[in-house]
Write a structure and sequence with these properties.
Probably acts as a heme chaperone, transferring heme to an unknown acceptor. Binds one molecule of heme per monomer, possibly covalently. Binds 1 [4Fe-4S] cluster. The cluster is coordinated with 3 cysteines and an exchangeable S-adenosyl-L-methionine. It is found in: Cytoplasm. The protein is an alpha/beta fold and about 425 residues long. The protein is globular. The chain folds into 2 domains: about 325 residues, TIM Barrel (Alpha-Beta Barrel); about 60 residues, no CATH class. Strand 5, helix 7 and strand 6 form a beta-alpha-beta unit. It has a 9-stranded mixed beta sheet with strand order 7-8-6-5-4-3-2-1-9, with helices on both faces. A 3-stranded antiparallel beta sheet has the order 10-11-12, with no helix packed on it. The protein has a two-stranded antiparallel ribbon with strand order 13-14. The protein is built from 16 helices and 14 strands.
Amino acid sequence: MPPSTPTVALPPSALPEGEPVPANGALPESVHLALANAAAPRQFGAYVHIPFCSVRCGYCDFNTYTATELRGVTHDSYPDALGQEIALARRVLDDAHHRAPLSTVFFGGGTPTLLPASALTGVHARLRQTFGIIDGAEITVEANPDTVDRASLQTLVDGGVTRVSFGMQSAVPHVLATLDRTHDPRRVPEVVAAAKAVGLEVSVDLIYGTPGESLDDWRTSLEAALALEPTHISAYALIIEPGTAIARRIRRGELAAVDDDLQADMYELADGMLSAAGYQWYELSNWSLGGAHPSRHNLAYWHDTDWWGFGPGAHSHIAGVRFWNVKHPAAYAERLRAGSSPAHGREVLDAEQQLAERVLLRTRLREGLATSELEHPERVAELIADGLVDARAALQGRVVLSLRGRLLADVVARTLS
């Protein structure tokens, strides 16, 4: 089995219910106590969800909408709704005495670059004015290669953006067609060069295991990505989510089912090629050039720090409490216009849940997890025996996955939880 894609940072197709959130969005008393007793300020980031796409890709299960699916909100009005939630978040955090400045901001989607670059930098400016941002903060924008040019990328840089993440997915036309990706793969080198020219760090995202994709196809995509010389490459195994177009095509027999063994081979090929080219894995699906350019925003998720997710369906985490917004952009905007929190529900994590999440998230990382944090450290021995955990690291007090363990990371997490 290939490593699974983490869901903590991604908007799900169906929201959990959880407990209700007060109309003013106030955080529970447990947050106030946790912040009052914290030994040091908690790291704080912002995720900004842009729910617009020009077309819906066949594999996509994210909270995104095309123009024909939207009502009650437009590209022009959406930044105002985000501004209203930013103001609400400031009031809620002030009440809880949470005043940490932002250290990362991530514009995800959807396709953030369907909005004008000036609109994205306007939202960033509002975040900066409202919360403050540390010097050297990482500010990332996801982009479809067909939705940017040098001028728009320069506008992003001028507005404080430091990093762009291009949804390359594949360099092979028939694979892109199966995924319903509309961009021309020949355009990717042009926009990567333009991004570098204006001073942006560049990451490219790849997907492997698409029905009909061969190991040689995947090798072609890896070679194309490496030729771009980005500072960061993500490679995610395709997961077939129920209700997506690609799931329906597989069910009808139009496409072959995903081959787990082939996906595992593809992961091992990616790790070998990327490592040979000087990229170091720091999380199961992410490699950084020389180990020096990880996504600091995503690392914040895996380290279970605090973040506020702005936008419909976005999830937040503040001092052990998770909450999530209503899913549809129209409902989101309407709540904010009425002066209410857009939050749909929340959950307060108990000590057992927090430990389980810490094990799940930290074992995905190259640095691993300290065995002293485990409730059952004796279980590490059986993982070493099965070749899933590095024995030398375990002797030094850390659970670090072997390559085989990275392919079976969920098994490791279940064993240790």
